[in-house]
Amino acid sequence: MITFENVGLRYGMGSEVLSDLNFQIEPGSFHFLTGPSGAGKTSLLRLMYLALRPSRGIMNLFEQDVSGLKRRDLPDIRRRIGIVFQEFRLLDHLTTFENIALPFRSAGREVEDYYGDVVELLEWVGLGGKMHALPAVLSGGEKQRAAIARAVIAQPELLLADEPTGNVDPQLARRLLRLFMELNRLGTSVILATHDLTLMDQFDAPRLVLDQGRMRIYE
Fold first, then answer.
1. Residues whose CB falls within 8 Å of the CB of residue 197, separated by 6 or more in sequence, listed in order
2. Rounded Cα–Cα distance for residues 71 and 89 (Å)
């Protein structure tokens, strides 16, 4: 699903923030992405989401070389990816239900086709009572859960999650991890960036460890 060959990334004329990355992510796999602050985890996820282009090397996504992909081709690739950003990126003028349903709306589906799925997921993430609320009245943890629900609702082929449990209590963090595990069981490849060692220890999955821009893999 993802292949990096000698990939490096730098911002502007600065030194590389990611260097000589060589790894593969197989379809249907689950990986934790971890490392100290500033190691490059968010930059790596942005490469995978095609928000950044590598400065050098070859990057394949869904068996396609995306290093030099034209801008007009990006939306088709991104529709196959779910992503949980640290900054949530909910649309302020849409309700919780409408924000979560965005992947379905973007695909042109009718609300009656997905209404039940969205409501069920709202209940699962503890937002059943906030279905019609706007983001302005949600807490940070509620916004995080809404962002997670939006990322997983359409069962993407690849899910990238950047510190998805950073604003919730440990009990809810475990519940959200089970949601990611179930999505993975249904076939989605999951890469979950986290600092939470306790959370990682609850699930036996390979760890991609970044340190000073270089990666080690622990199976």
1. none
2. 21
- What whole-number distance in Å separates Cα of residue 107 and Cα of residue 104? 5
Against a cut of 0.85, is the pTM above it?
yes
pLDDT by residue (tens digit) across 120-153? 999 988 899 999 999 999 998 899 889 989 999 9
- Alpha helix (H) residue ranges in 1-79: 41-48, 74-78
Give start and end residues of each alpha helix (H) in the chain: 41-48, 74-78, 96-100, 102-106, 111-124, 140-152, 170-185, 197-201
Structural domains of the chain, with CATH: 2-218 (3.40.50.300)
Q: How many CB atoms lie within 10 A of CB 211?
A: 13
Dist. CA 128–CA 150, nearest whole Å? 14
Instruction: State the residue for tokens 């990006």.
Output: 74
Q: Which residue has the tokens 């779910």?
A: 82
What contacts 63, CB < 8 A, 6 or more positions away? none
Tokens of 77: 């690739």
